[in-house]
Amino acid sequence: MAPVNFPMSPASGLRQHDNMKASKPKEWNDLERRKLSVMSRRRYGAAEIAAALRRHVGSVKRMAREMGLLLKK
Questions:
Q1: What is the pLDDT of residues 2-60, one digit of tens each?
Q2: How many CB atoms neighbour CB 33 within 10 A?
Q3: Cα distance between residue 8 and residue 12, in whole Å
Q4: CA-to-CA separations, 1 to 4, 11, 42, 62, in angstroms, rounded
Q5: Helix/strand/coil for 19
Q6: Whose CA is closest to 45, among 57, 30, 56?
Q7: Which pLDDT score is estimated for 25?
Q8: Residue partners of 17: CB distance under 8 A and separation at least 6
Q9: For residues 6 and 49, what is the distance between their CA atoms, to the nearest angstrom?
Q10: pTM exceeds cut of 0.85
Q11: Can you list the alpha helix ranges (DSSP code H) found in the chain?
Q12: What is the rounded CA–CA span in Å between residue 31 and residue 15?
């Protein structure tokens, strides 16, 4: 029986997923917070706001909760 070969990075000899680093969350700026506030008052949903701000839905929901905003279900 032949040994099993795992995918390796040709340069380092490490498995490819060992080279990946966790990305740092993108900080929210004042303009994004204002847009979130305005869009929530206009009754946009979390998915629509996330698409407009190019953010993840979970990130939008978390920031809305921190700001005390209610989002449409």
A1: 666 666 555 555 555 556 777 888 899 999 999 999 999 999 999 999 999 999 999 99
A2: 16
A3: 8
A4: 9, 28, 65, 52
A5: helix
A6: 57
A7: 82
A8: none
A9: 41
A10: no
A11: 30-41, 46-53, 57-67
A12: 41
Report how far apart, in Å, the C-alpha atoms of 14 and of each of 2, 3, 8, 21, 23 are: 21, 17, 6, 14, 20
Question: 71 is written with which tokens?
Answer: 């989002």
Q: Which amino acid is at 54?
A: R
Asked whether residue 73 carries a pLDDT value surpassing 80, the answer given is no
Q: Which two tokens stand for residue 57?
A: 């839905």
Residue 60: Cβ-neighbour burial (10 angstroms; 0-12, 13-18, 19+): buried
Instruction: Please report the pLDDT score of residue 49 as a whole number.
Output: 98
Residue 42 region, left (φ>0) first, then alpha (ψ -120 to 50), else beta? alpha
pLDDT at 8: 59
